[in-house]
Predict the 3D structure of the following.
Amino acid sequence: MAETSVTHAHDTHEHADDAHLWEGGKEPLKASYGKLMMWYFLVSDAFTFAGFLIAYGALRFSMPSWPEPDFVFASFPFVKAHWPLVFVTFMTFVLIFSSVTMVRAVQEGHRENQRGVVYWMFLTILGGATFLGCQAYEWTTLIAGENMTVKQNPFGRHIADGIYLNDDGTEAKKTDGSPDVFQKGDSYLLHMHPVRQADGTMKDEFIQRKIKYTTGPYAGQTGVQEMGPKAFGALFFFITGFHGFHVFSGVLFLAIIAINAAGGVYAARRNGYEMVEKIGLYWHFVDLVWVFVFLVFYLL
Amino acid sequence: MAGHQTYEEQKALVFRGLMILGVVTIVEVVIALFAKGHIVPSIRFTEGFGHYLYMLLMIGFSLFKAYFIIFYFMHMAYEVRGLVMSVLLPTTLLIWAIIAFFQEGNSWGARRELIQEKNEEVVSPAPVGKPQGYILPGTMKG
């Protein structure tokens, strides 16, 4: 008898809960509305980025040749050297560090430690700004130094073995006298030089050397060094630009929230600095996307 | 979140996270440079089986980094099952997107090659006097 009455009491209790289910205060999935919506926003954003990266893969597969990442991304500030992947690795570390400082900011928020939150968020903002500066350098080098834009891509790759030809059609020699040959898959960057036009004016044009293929289905054919696939430039600037825009808006919101935290806005709410936790989710997502941008653009 | 951990444990997690992500990234880059022949020029994995192995390895490392960031930095490991599933399950749709679009890219590439071949094809001119084009059966004699 006692047991049934207990069950009964339990049932009515449940009913009482359900009656007020839609009156607020009960969190579905044990997460606040803001956090849940941030998660679902991130899911949708993940699909956007996935769409871009998959498009990159599909276009890459459709082209007979594709620029080699460790040839394209090999510049480093203040150093005239060919250091493949070194600078992007540095950029990756900047984002990892800023992600780590963000975790610390969220932890200090749970302890209601206002000074800690502001301090770690400041370091996170610094990391984000450093990343943006690195990206600005990378873009400047590619656009101003190497003439890659969304419409043209001077980074190409030979599709078969062959030899360079002089302007008169004879086989070219290197400075040491050996034949100037290239192999399938070798990368090249076309440079711009001023060329005299028919009307006597000078105009910058890409210098494309004459070549003759010696192997493969094109053996014996002559041609010039072709420009690389246009899609590479467009995809690179669009996808890293979209990611960079995420970093930029992330830095803006981090700054706003850090200022609010410093002003005591979240301390008054007494909810463990939940706003810091939400911007933290976004910031980790930006780092997460970079993991895949790094994979697709620089490693594969 | 993560209320069951002490403050010291939380700080240790952060340090461990930094180490794991940093080491995985460095390993990735070293393998990438090695596979592309920048460390030992005579050894490269740029074609065939070795290249597939290299790509699989890189994708595996990246997925591990993604898992670590989502589950520990974003605290997914401490959320309820329903939230985890509602966020992670939809992303499995991407598996099909990858298969479908890469297939599409390949066929697109094959089409480009075919067009290239057809453009270079030398066609011998049709004999003079005979009608050209498609002839309906029974309409032409001789």
